[in-house]
Specification:
This protein is α+β, with helices and mostly antiparallel strands. The protein folds into 3 domains: 84 residues, Uridine Diphospho-n-acetylenolpyruvylglucosamine Reductase, domain 2; 127 residues, Uridine Diphospho-n-acetylenolpyruvylglucosamine Reductase, domain 3; 74 residues, UDP-N-acetylenolpyruvoylglucosamine reductase, C-terminal domain (Uridine Diphospho-n-acetylenolpyruvylglucosamine Reductase, domain 1, Alpha-Beta Complex). Helices cover 28% and strands 25% of the residues. The N and C termini lie close together (9 Å).
Length: 307
């Protein structure tokens, strides 16, 4: 684990009117579902969108910026993350607003599950699939998150964010350039909110579909474990778990990291794994699958920082 030089005084000198929280050498492991990894050189939690825009507009252009959300699909490497890590939270980025015409607006820090529930309570159908995704809206926008037959591209009207120069930008559905588990939105944009379109539905029908999705997820996935969700994108038309299983990787261990015996597209921290154990195990799975079936698995879990 690295202790970085403290860059927060220099940042505060450049941006004296910051209202958010800025911390030096802040632990990131508590923000990752794997509970591993080193610190952020500087961790910034903006007060609201304008505070984020102010911060980015005054940050040196060569300063690395990394954004993290709920940490459900993230490996923070053991050496920590140099530069600034931005984590959105609080009321400014955690609000959900139901609008006329079966529309719903959600902040980027809103958990996907909470969006699904808010839509259900408002009698808005079409967003039930979000209850099966353990991330936040910001991540859903970045990777076109989907599950159980639905994807973000099916329901998004527009997304709002701030770019590296501190400009507030709005992206239409077409601007997002969605494809399977990917969007073409500029890498430097930090999403702050999104507007979704659902359809009128019966509350009981919506609730039943969400219950079905939740039960299916609990029956098939190790959701009580320290995990990062689906590790690899499905190499369509195949399923990642099938090629991993066929390569004999179910239950494979490296240190205290394990390929889940329950669902082998999930990696698990059994308690004392390092980030290197988890990432190394994933790379070993990729190697074995490539050797066995010729499939080149693509990481779906994001990996950040210094090994």
């Amino acid at each position: 684990m690295t202790d970085f030089p403290d860059i927060t005084p220099a940042i505060r000198a450049r941006a004296p009117d910051l209202r958010g929280r800025l911390q030096a050498n802040a632990p990131l492991a508590p923000y990752s579902w794997f509970r591993v990894g080193g610190p952020a050189q500087a961790l910034f939690s903006p007060a609201d969108e304008s505070d984020l825009a102010y911060f980015l507009s005054l940050l040196p252009v060569d300063m690395p910026v990394t954004t993290v959300g709920l940490g459900s699909n993230l490996i923070v490497r053991d050496g920590g993350v140099p530069g600034v890590v931005i984590r959105l939270g609080g009321k400014a980025f955690g609000a959900v607003e139901v609008l006329p015409g079966e529309k719903i607006r959600a902040g980027a820090a809103v958990p996907d599950m909470r969006l699904a529930r808010a839509a259900a309570e408002a009698g808005i159908a079409g967003l039930e699939f979000y209850c099966g995704i353990p991330g936040s809206i910001g991540g859903a926008l970045r990777m076109n998150a989907g599950a159980h037959g639905g994807e973000t591209t099916d329901v998004l009207i527009e997304a709002r964010g701030v770019d590296r120069a501190g400009r507030i930008r709005v992206f239409s559905h077409a601007d997002m350039g969605f494809s399977y588990r990917h969007s073409q939105a500029p890498d430097d944009v930090i999403f702050t909110s999104a507007l979704f379109q659902g359809r009128a539905g019966e509350a009981a029908t919506i609730a039943a579909e969400m219950s079905r999705i939740t039960a299916a997820r609990e029956a098939a996935q190790p959701i009580r474990e320290k995990t990062g969700g689906s590790t690899f994108a499905n190499p369509k038309p195949q399923s990642a778990w099938k090629v991993i299983d066929a390569a004999g990787c179910r239950g494979l261990l490296r240190g205290d990291a394990e390929v889940s015996p329950m669902h082998c597209n999930f990696l698990i921290n059994r308690g004392a794994a390092t980030a290197a154990d988890i990432e190394g195990l994933g790379e070993e799975v990729r190697r074995r699958v490539k050797e066995h079936s010729g499939v080149d698995l693509r990481w779906e879990i994001r990996r950040i920082g210094i090994p």
